[in-house]
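User: quick one - fold this with zinc ion bound?
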Amino acid sequence: MVGASCGTVAANVIDTHCHLTGDRYKGGLGAILTTAREAGLSAMIAVAVDVEDAYAAQSLSEAEPDVWCTAGVHPSEAGRDHNLEQLEQLISHPRCLAWGEMGLDGHWPDPTLPAQRALFEAQLAVVKQVDGLGGALKPIILHSRRAVEEVLETLKRVGICGSRCVFHCFTEGPELIHPVLAFGAHVSFTGVVTYRNAADVAAASDEVPLDRLMVETDSPYLTPEPHRGTWPNEPANVVHVSHYLAARRGMSNADFEAATDATAQSFFGVP
Ligand SMILES: [Zn+2]
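Assistant: Sure. Structure tokens for the protein plus zinc ion:
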């Protein structure tokens, strides 16, 4: 809070979606977390891409007070066996804020869409099963690359409420943001929104009200401008996504960050 009162370091910035586990940070995660804290981040959500990764994220969240975890299997992991029953155990952990990431990716031909659909729907069945046990309904982080309409259709068919969903790394134009917002979902943007060749994504971001808008890095991928092309991306860079979107809206960085962090805190239940 000292930094905030001096006006030098933004307090309470949240990277709502990063991948910190496994061997992604070969130089060591300690320095990455220190840099993030020095940049003013108060929380990072370490998003799982499969069951094993979810246990790794859970362990990290137990060791680091500002790291939280999720439970889900990424569509790129479709086509092989996953013990999805373990998601029920993972989601009940007090440090686990959300399901996901899960969904569909229409960009790559492999794994096939039928395999991705089967994995997505099997996970939604686990979500519904856990919902039926009572207790708070945890949010769902959705991957929907080139598949926004089908992801929406699937969620509606299964009976998932839009207000508990976030369409993460939104990379479509304004025409596809409208059905997502009409569904009641939240939307989060990565460094892609800062890229010169992604003007339609930036235009889509303009449509999202602040109480439905969040920022993320999707680290180690998608490094934002002005560091585009640098590998790996890291949570500290979420401030560049934030500053870009603040400037587009004619808002101060502090006001924009306060608004989107309030959205993230209430959506994910970050204390
Ligand atoms: Zn991700």
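One thing worth noting: Residues 17, 19, 47, 101, 218 surround zinc ion (CB under 6 Å).
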